[in-house]
């Protein structure tokens, strides 16, 4: 014996005797469930769940925990990808607003028919049931919650109205574009939210024909 060590005991680094079962490996990193949650597609699942939750419950009644549960992930993962509830909402509505956010491209170059193109583009988005229902849910949230309204306002200003205004050759272009947008939003409220006749039941082409000259004046006349 030497130094108090049993000579029959293997020292550090000594391979185990033949037939000795291997020691269990130490588990490191995320648990298996968490790793699966954070795997490919986790962010997309969270975003899809957020859109559904906000549409069904509104901004006030939707929680990060509820979104996480609907997506099948831990709430910490929602915060990891998106941050706060406000930031999750912003990401969700940007995806929902994707069809409308292409409006500046449709109006590029202005022209004698820009008012009609603007009206036709917006009614094309609103008349499509696939895009209309999520938009209605977002508008209802914005009407009842200041935070949701601020997020929506920022998105519309940054991604739509400022880009359209940059294409116009008129005084106060941002003011003009807001007037045009307000005109269309007011009609959308009457037609799709309040559902007030005769606007609610009118043919879209009839509305476009009536509205287009006013939008044209906003967007082109000095």
From TrEMBL:
Record region (Disordered): 1-42
Pfam families membership: TetR_C_16, TetR_N
**Compositional bias of type Pro residues: which residue ranges?**
12-24
The HTH tetR-type domain, residue ranges: 40-100
**Keywords of the record:** DNA-binding
Q: For this UniProt entry, which residues form the secretion signal?
A: none
- Portion annotated as DNA-binding: 63-82
Q: Where is the composition biased (Low complexity)?
A: 32-41
Q: Which SUPFAM superfamilies does this entry report, sorted A to Z?
A: Homeodomain-like, Tetracyclin repressor-like, C-terminal domain
The record's GO molecular-function terms, alphabetically, read: DNA-binding transcription factor activity; transcription cis-regulatory region binding
Q: What name does UniProt use for this protein?
A: TetR family transcriptional regulator
């Amino acid at each position: 014996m030497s130094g108090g060590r049993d000579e029959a005991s293997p020292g550090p680094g000594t391979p185990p005797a033949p037939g000795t079962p291997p020691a269990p490996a130490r588990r490191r990193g995320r648990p298996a469930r968490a790793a699966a949650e954070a795997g490919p597609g986790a962010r997309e699942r969270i975003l899809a769940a957020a859109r559904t939750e906000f549409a069904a419950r509104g901004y006030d009644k939707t929680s990060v925990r509820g979104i996480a549960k609907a997506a099948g992930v831990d709430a910490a993962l929602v915060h990891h990808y998106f941050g706060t509830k406000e930031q999750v909402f912003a990401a969700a509505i940007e995806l929902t607003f994707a069809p409308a956010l292409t409006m500046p491209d449709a109006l590029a170059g202005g022209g004698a028919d820009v008012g009609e193109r603007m009206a036709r583009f917006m009614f094309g988005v609103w008349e499509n049931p696939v895009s209309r229902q999520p938009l209605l849910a977002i508008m209802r949230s914005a009407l009842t919650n200041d935070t949701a309204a601020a997020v929506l306002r920022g998105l519309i200003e940054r991604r739509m109205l400022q880009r359209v205004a940059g294409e116009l050759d008129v005084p106060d272009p941002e003011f003009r574009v807001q007037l045009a947008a307000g005109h269309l939003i007011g009609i959308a409220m009457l037609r799709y939210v309040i559902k007030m006749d005769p606007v609610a039941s009118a043919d879209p082409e009839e509305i476009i024909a009536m509205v287009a000259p006013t939008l044209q004046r906003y967007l082109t006349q000095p």
